[in-house]
Design brief:
The structure is a homodimer.
Chain A: H1 2-5, H2 10-18, H3 24-42, E1 45-48, H4 50-62, E2 73-77, H5 104-111, E3 115-120, H6 148-155, E4 161-166, H7 172-178, E5 181-184, E6 204-209, H8 212-223, E7 239-241, H9 252-267, E8 272-274, H10 284-299, H11 301-306, H12 313-323, H13 327-343, E9 353-357, H14 374-382, E10 386-393, E11 399-405, H15 411-426
Helix pairs in contact in A: 3-4, 10-12, 10-13, 10-14
Chain lengths: ~425, ~425
């Protein structure tokens, strides 16, 4: 019976916990059973704390309802500091590191009643060198990165909620590859304190769960934006189909998902328009790449200076590329980003949200790379809210979906549209 | 002879070090002698590392010139992580804390050849509860805060350069009270990685030294913006005298400094215009207060949740006030700030820089408070570059000066004007 708990979304579980229909302890045990069964194949976890999770569950079951996340087990990407669990940021430089304090996002979840089950695998400093995690949908395929373990753990039913972060495509891409819902909020919506920084201009806290309503709940707790708790509306969202300047890089599975969405949404009565991004913005993905490299080279200057031998060759060359970007070039990049942020409201002139590819296609074969964040870079640079909704599958049967993108700060509207789409296209 | 080294600015010392006219070891020893003599009266330092500073000086003296800060002793505000020195963030919660890594700003200074002499006293988490530091200009007076130790150490000749940070007025105010040059760059110019965060929307890394040229050198090393190395220009800056909406709060000493500057600048041939801030912006100081409280409550959520008894009553009530600010109010505050950032270029229509009060007046009596950041709040919210230039004194003989404020991102232009003013008004 407890095993069925793993198939229910966090929002539904939170209601059942608050009404005392289920106990936090049963839910934690269901998660731990699943982990026992599957972790040796999936490697989603960098550290686990079963005993303190059970202790905390008993405390919560015995006390008043603590907050929005009361009793919900949570996976925490190993990029976030935790005072009671090792924190490696996915790097051997920090093997055995135990921070003094929790990251703000972790403390906010705990205050809201979440139970930290453990730390999930991150790539090296949230960049490209993978950890050991395997895609739970099919062995031998990458789960994506950098929030590899969080996406895989949620996809496998090990935990109903997990924290992630995105600088380029580290939430949306693994959500797409693992077939779960991933939500990168508007830039600045959640404090990044205690999360290992890559780029102050881009780093964004977000999360994973089964359904749009679930990630909205997580973000309501993290941001204090309680409007996210009610994303149901009678209105039918208007979608803008945005193939993006990178469309030629999308493979047939992603292209087919776009066509299927267009057909399906129209059938359900949603207005769909084509939104074309003007040529002058086609370079934004490269601007994101350069801003990230510039900032990462400076944020990781201690690691680069003192522990160069423990950096992966790929990261070392990314940091070198970043050091070679001059202050002048960087400021020109930031100015281009700023101009695009001011202009991009126009893309929403005839629609409430955009619908765009999340990834090139299905999760690629191989565990030595995490796939390409190409289709996420522009939106990360612009700081717009993005929600990946899984609703289809590709030629080999692995999950495929699309991302819903909102105006800056209009997270609720984006979540509403994403849920509307999920309700109609994914639960058919 | 070495004692005279303490009276020379960092820029001049850096040139002498690079030309091998003086040794880093002599300079470190001169600083340590001064500290030996004065520290028991001033309490500027939270931790010192004389031996490793001497060792590093010998290494640098024996090797090639390492970078812009080659051989310069540096004080590091105890808000920045250091791997080789305790880091308390000014709070008993972190007594004895030793971080794994250096903050990015510390690593960047070290890479440029700076020698970390020790950690300087910060108020509690860079807010308002003072440390023990005494104003070196007169016992019994506050040095200001939160970068209390950095400002006092530079003012007393203990070190030629020190790192600081500003969220409300934590660089400009202590610079004013201690009579040194303080520079808060444009928001985002230096990575904040490894500095204990208060507010992602406001926190800015900067520093202290004797002259404008010296802080420009420090920031050139921190930001990679080498244009800051050459702030001499033939052109005469045009100043906008900006009494700000808080003018009534300025005491006679600050008001007299404004009049003296207006007279002096005109005498030296600089154009001076009056710049009035429209009434709609008079609430920006309050917006800054609220944004800071909101963000601090979330950034310090672990400390608040786990160690409430170790927070000062003042900080506890600031965090409570911050928790009471709703997401909706906060977003309205950020929108007001954003609108003002877009509008404030108009204030520079007839001038290159603004000249405005740095503080209410001379350093107040008493060590139980650090003075009011009122005159800094608006500029911190707007993210504009600010340089405090000491050039006068008040009724009791303590230092008074003004801040030069530039357009966002135009740090070099602001530094040029500040140096022009310092050369003419402060070295008469």
């Amino acid at each position: 019976m407890t095993s069925q708990l793993n198939q229910r979304g966090a929002f539904e579980l939170a209601s059942a916990l608050a009404r005392r229909e289920i106990t936090a302890l049963d839910l934690v045990n269901a998660c731990l059973e699943r982990i026992d069964l599957r972790e040796r194949d999936i490697d989603a976890w960098a550290a686990l704390s079963p005993q303190s999770a059970r202790d905390r569950a008993r405390e919560l079951d015995a006390g008043p309802v603590r907050g929005l996340l009361h009793g919900l087990p949570l996976g925490v990407k190993d990029l976030f500091d935790t005072a009671d669990l090792p924190t490696t940021y996915g790097s051997p430089i920090y093997a055995g590191h135990r921070p003094v304090a929790d990251a703000a996002a972790v403390a906010l979840c705990r205050e809201a009643g979440a139970i930290v089950l453990g730390k999930t695998v991150s790539t090296e400093f949230a960049t490209y060198q993978p950890g050991p995690t395997v895609n739970p949908r099919r062995a031998g395929h990458t789960p994506g990165g950098s929030s590899s373990g969080s996406a895989a753990a949620v996809a496998d039913g090990m935990v109903p909620l997990a924290l992630g972060s995105q600088t380029a495509g580290s939430i949306i891409r693994p959500a797409a590859f693992c077939g779960v819902t991933g939500y990168k909020p508007s830039f600045g919506k959640v404090p990044v304190t205690g999360m290992k920084p890559l780029s102050e201009n881009l780093d964004t806290v977000g999360g994973f769960s089964l359904y749009v309503k679930d990630v909205a709940l997580l973000l309501a707790a993290l941001s204090g934006d309680h409007a996210l708790l009610d994303i149901d509306e009678n209105s039918t969202p208007r979608f803008g189909l945005c193939r993006t300047p990178q469309w030629d890089a999308a493979d047939v599975d992603t292209q087919a998902a776009m066509e299927a969405a267009a057909t399906g949404l129209s059938r359900h009565g949603a207005a769909c328009v084509e939104v074309n991004i003007a040529a002058q913005y086609s370079g934004l993905a490269q601007v994101q790449t350069d801003v990230m490299a510039h900032d990462a080279a400076r944020s990781l200057s201690w690691e680069h200076d003192r522990h160069a031998a423990l950096l992966s060759p790929g990261l070392a060359s990314m940091l070198q590329a970043g050091m070679d970007i001059t202050r002048h070039q960087h400021e020109a990049n930031l100015a281009r980003a700023d101009a695009a942020r001011r202009a991009c409201d126009a893309w929403f002139a005839d629609c409430d949200v955009l619908l765009a590819p999340s990834a090139i296609g299905e999760a690629p074969t191989g565990l030595d790379a995490t796939g390409d964040p190409l289709f996420c870079r522009m939106w990360s640079l612009l700081g717009l809210p993005c929600i990946h909704v899984p609703f289809s599958s590709g030629r080999t049967g692995l999950p495929v979906g699309l991302q819903v993108i909102g105006r800056a700060g209009k997270d609720r509207q984006a979540l509403h549209a994403a849920q509307w789409l999920q309700d109609r296209l994914a639960r058919q």
